[in-house]
Every structure is written in structure tokens, then in C-alpha cells.
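Same chain as my last thread, 190 residues:
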Amino acid sequence: MAVGLAALAIETRRLYSDLVHRSEFDLLTDIHNRFSLDKHLDRQIREARETAGIFGLIYIDLDEFKQVNDLYGHHLGDLYLQEATFRMKRQLRPQDKLARLGGDEFVALVPVARSRADVEEIARRLERCFDDPFAIGGHLLHGSASVGMALYPADATTNDGLLSAADAAMYKAKRNRREIERGHAEVGNP
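reply #2:
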């Protein structure tokens, strides 16, 4: 009977750990999800208030991801998301956290920063990690990402405010890129 109870306790603990993991991590990419990001961001804001610290939040949107799903199917789109996640994680430091908000939107929490330049450097690395093509399922895919950042407390002091500021900066970068690409296309077509 004791062996049966011990086995039941072990199985219950395993199930509990699995449920906790599923509640805080994205099942496809195995990185933090929105719920987990919110908890870490709230904790980071509290700590920064107490220590008068600064930290960064980087919003990442995969450009034209819908076309990957439309042209190659959702299975290849999932593989693309997994590879993109792997590349982004390699650009971050051990203390940084990458989260998938959903679809093709990600956020990197940069808890240790001395200045805006520190966070900008990580944002540039995240953007550049898409420069090399993705070899997935016998296809060569060219990807890119639009990246925007916010700094606590300079850009916002709340969870929602930081996400909104980083999201707005990302959309501004996306618009600027489109305008530049449109300008190059017009120059090439007299």
C-alpha cells in the first residue's frame, strides 16, 4: 500500500509540474507565454521602483508571417516559429526573458540595463538574427522582424504602458522600413 501511495504522490507531483509549465510556457515554442510575461514584468517593475533601476522591453513582430502559413501551410509555419524562437533566444543574455504573446508577436524582457543603448544593442541583435535565410522542410525562407523597444521608467511605468510603448515603437519601425523599401522601388523604376 505504501508503494502505491508513493507512486500516486510522484504521479500527482509530475502532473502538477506539467500543469504549471503549461500555464506559463507557450506549447509550440517552449518560451514564456503572455501570462508568465505579465508576472515577470510586474515583478521587474516592483524591483525597479524599489531600487530606482531601469530595464527594457523589446517588442518583436515577424514580418509577413501570414504569407508563410498561406504559401507553405501551418505545419511549416510552426517550424518557422520554432526556428525564429531559437535564433532570438541565442541573441539574449541568460537573465533576459523571451515570451510569445501569440501568433507572430514576441517580447523580450531585458531586466539588466545601464542605459537605453544597452537595450538598443539587444534589439539590433534580435532584428539581425533574421538576416540569414531559414532552411525548413526543403524550403529556403527569407524572414525579417520589426522591433521596437521601451525603457522603464523613461517611456512608461506600468505593465500595459511599457507594452504599448514598445508596440508603438515597433509599428513606427515597420512603417519606416516600408517607406524606405517603397522609396528604393520607386528609384529603381523610372
